[in-house]
Target: ABC-2 type transport system ATP-binding protein
Amino acid sequence: MTVAGLSGVTKRHGETVVLDDVSLGFTENRIHGLLGRNGAGKTTIMQILTGQNFETSGKVEVFGEHPYENDRVLRDVCFIKESQKYPDMFAVHHALTAASLLYENWDAEFAAELVEEFALPPKRRIKKLSRGQMSAVGVIIGLASRAKLTFFDEPYLGLDAVARHRFYELLLADYAEHPRTIVLSTHLIDEISDLLEHVTLVDKGRVLLDGDSDELRASAVTVTGPARSVAEFAADHTELHREQLGGFLRVTLSGAIPERSPEDLHVEPVSLQQLVVRTTQQATGERGFVGAAHERGTRS
Ligand SMILES: Nc1ncnc2c1ncn2[C@@H]1O[C@H](COP(=O)(O)OP(=O)(O)OP(=O)(O)O)[C@@H](O)[C@H]1O
Model:
């Protein structure tokens, strides 16, 4: 069941088209990745779905209703972003108390455990916290709120690598015990790709990819080997990308892993990160992509 979705949504700021006829949906009890380059429109999508921004046209539904100024909807929605502002006097514990009043599924015990886990000084004012500690405040609120629909708009980027991995572990463990819909927006695709069950890729306000992660991973392969052999093999496939590595060639090809391939070739499924990069390059016609015209021509 789709809990939050956009249907033919366009968002304009004056002459600038920020979202261009976007349709997407986030399914109940699933971890979604909302991916895309800087300025792609990810934050705008999340703002519209959390009632913090307006669509110019199209249909927006969260739990079957429009979210704007809609308490019935918003009490089940948590939006965690890096730029979250708190009143000047707020200490960590004030932010947690405010969150406990806002979210009906708030788990105070879990929040206290997370404060210890991320070694946060509860009485320190938020504006005095380090960047990583500020990110931890957001991460803790996002997890302990247990909202039916939780958006994380890159708040964990301020955490160091060790703390980020701990966040991913905690998220997965808590999600297993308390299934809900989680949307993660990030540039660090490799880091979170194992977490994601569904991926939506946006670029320049348009949806480029939208599908189940495993199906997307199975939709392309990387083939590496002696240049001539790879080129011969690639000739029969739709090529998404080509990289020369000395006498070797690496190509990304559209399609499933072939049952048989020449012995001197190494064929592996594409990683989510590669797929995202290649698809975005293809859409923007960036250098490094061979066969863009063909691929574009074959897309419906
Ligand atoms: N109020 C505004 N007026 C004009 N343009 C805006 C406004 N808000 C956002 N934009 C533009 O909309 C586009 C999408 O912005 P958005 O913040 O949604 O992207 P994003 O995918 O979240 O990017 P990032 O990964 O860099 O955070 C950008 O080009 C941005 O400059």
